């Protein structure tokens, strides 16, 4: 398999790179950004067809994996012989624009200014979709035979968890990849894996009473105040020391709060959500127990009060990452090396659809154009050069994995 500089066949690489046209890549991205696919509601049909048509033109076989009509998932495949299956995945749905007055450039205009394409989804995640589709097109046009199978799997539903998107695809028997490359904004760095998540709901129960007679009740918001302070003073410094060479440190932040029923009632309940991101070695259940212990200690002595801590709906997930020396990350690193890009592996600190493939036992890495800190913001943009670079890198990773004898 891929190792050292023998990973990429130079001849094949040059043939494929010659088929990548900057203008065509840019225009494809602009066309895709101009097709709104805001989630919710998450109707991606037009964007999906746009990608499918481009791939069908160069001989890809088009199928869909669909549970909900508005949320088809593309399965475009091509094979010229025996070998492993490489799957590229990225998502077509985008988050809402927010107040459009906060945008300088129209969110679905895909205008280009100073070499940047502006628009909702320009980076997250239509830049990756574009680079994957155009890499596949280049490979097909080059005539370099694919030994194995290349699958382009553009999906719906990522921004709301992926149950009808990547999760559905990863569980489909038609999808059995040996290698998965998930496109998200990594600034074209090779991310060996992603952090885990173990968000928890913390609920404090007290006792209601008339607001004029507070001593008759037990104020749940008072208790929660102590818990939030304890999370800041005790938990956050502890987490800052839980580090891992690939990832940002372990972290938590209180992201939601609700409590109280009326201005003149002592609240009997208060709830917060703690967004908790975990590094390798941390387990969701331990993380929950740790928050519980801190919360119980914080309200100890407040008579008539109790606290419950529960993992979020999906029960949390551990961090995952591939060994740097495995063939999949090696192929992507080789591609970056070949192109003179950053070939130092790293990790991704946000969640991606990669977890759904990992849950089925398929190795997944994350790689794509764009800056994650621009995602979900007004005036989201991606550099044209980054998208072209990613197109080349994806194409070369495919050459590395799918052209071996
Ligand atoms: Zn994304």
SSE blueprint and pairings:
Blueprint: H1 10-17, H2 22-33, H3 45-57, E1 61-66, E2 72-91, E3 112-113, E4 116-118, H4 126-142, E5 147-155, H5 166-170, E6 179-182, E7 191-194, E8 196-197, E9 200-205, E10 209-210, H6 220-240, E11 251-259, E12 265-266, E13 269-278, H7 284-299, E14 306-311, E15 320-321, H8 327-339, E16 346-348, H9 354-359, E17 364-366, E18 381-383, H10 384-402
Parallel strand pairs: 2-5, 2-6, 6-17, 7-16
Antiparallel strand pairs: 1-2, 3-4, 4-18, 7-15, 8-13, 9-13, 9-14, 10-12, 11-13
Helix pairs in contact: 1-4, 1-10, 2-4, 4-10, 6-7, 8-10
Description:
The protein folds into two domains: 4-195 and 319-402, Aminopeptidase; 197-311, 2-Layer Sandwich (Alpha-Beta Plaits). α1 (10-17) packs antiparallel against α10, α2 (22-33) packs across α4 (126-142) and α8 crosses α10 (384-402). The longest helix has 21 residues, at 220-240. The chain has helices at residues 10-17, 22-33, 45-57, 126-142, 166-170, 220-240, 284-299, 327-339, 354-359, 384-402, and strands spanning 61-66, 72-91, 112-113, 116-118, 147-155, 179-182, 191-194, 196-197, 200-205, 209-210, 251-259, 265-266, 269-278, 306-311, 320-321, 346-348, 364-366, 381-383. The strands form five sheets. Strands 1, 2, 5, 6 and 17 form a five-stranded mixed β-sheet that branches. Helices cover 32% and strands 24% of the residues. The protein is elongated, with a radius of gyration of 24 Å. The chain has 405 residues and is of the alpha+beta class. The structure holds zinc ion. Residues 91, 124-125, 158, 184 line the site of zinc ion.
């Amino acid at each position: 398999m891929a190792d050292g500089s023998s990973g990429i066949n130079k001849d094949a690489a040059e043939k494929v790179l010659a088929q990548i046209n900057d203008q065509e890549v840019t225009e494809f991205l602009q066309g895709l950004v101009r097709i709104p696919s805001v989630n919710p509601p998450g109707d991606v049909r037009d964007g999906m067809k746009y990608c499918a048509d481009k791939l069908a033109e160069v001989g890809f076989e088009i199928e869909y994996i669909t549970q909900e009509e508005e949320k088809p998932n593309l399965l475009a495949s091509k094979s010229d012989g025996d070998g492993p299956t490489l799957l590229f995945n990225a998502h077509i749905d985008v988050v809402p624009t927010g107040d459009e007055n906060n945008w300088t450039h129209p969110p679905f205009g895909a205008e280009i200014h100073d070499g940047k394409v502006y628009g909702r989804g320009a980076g997250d995640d239509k830049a990756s979709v574009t680079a994957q589709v155009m890499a596949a097109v280049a490979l097909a046009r080059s005539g370099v035979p694919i030994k194995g199978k290349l699958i382009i799997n553009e999906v719906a539903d990522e921004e709301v968890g992926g149950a009808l998107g990547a999760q559905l695809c990863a569980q489909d028997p038609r999808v059995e990849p040996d290698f998965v490359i998930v496109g998200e904004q990594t600034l074209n760095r090779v991310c060996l894996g992603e952090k885990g998540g173990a968000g928890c709901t913390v609920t404090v129960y007290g006792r209601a009473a008339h607001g004029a007679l507070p001593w008759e009740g037990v104020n749940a918001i008072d208790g929660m105040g102590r818990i939030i302070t304890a999370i800041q003073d005790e938990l956050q410094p502890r987490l800052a020391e839980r580090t891992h060479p690939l990832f940002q440190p372990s972290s938590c932040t209180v992201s939601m709060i609700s409590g109280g029923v009326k201005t003149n009632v002592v609240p009997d309940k208060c709830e917060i959500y703690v967004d908790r991101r975990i590094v390798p070695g941390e387990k969701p259940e331990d993380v929950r127990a740790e928050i519980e212990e801190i919360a119980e200690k914080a309200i100890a002595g407040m008579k008539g009060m109790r606290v419950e801590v529960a993992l979020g709906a999906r029960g949390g997930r551990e961090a995952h990452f591939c060994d740097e020396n495995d063939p999949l990350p090696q192929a992507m690193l080789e591609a970056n090396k070949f192109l003179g890009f950053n070939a130092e592996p790293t990790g991704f600190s946000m969640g991606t659809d990669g977890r759904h493939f990992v849950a089925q036992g398929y190795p997944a890495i994350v790689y794509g154009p764009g800056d994650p800190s621009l995602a979900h913001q007004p005036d989201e943009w991606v550099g044209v050069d980054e998208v072209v670079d990613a197109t080349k890198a994806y194409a070369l990773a495919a050459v590395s994995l799918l052209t071996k004898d």
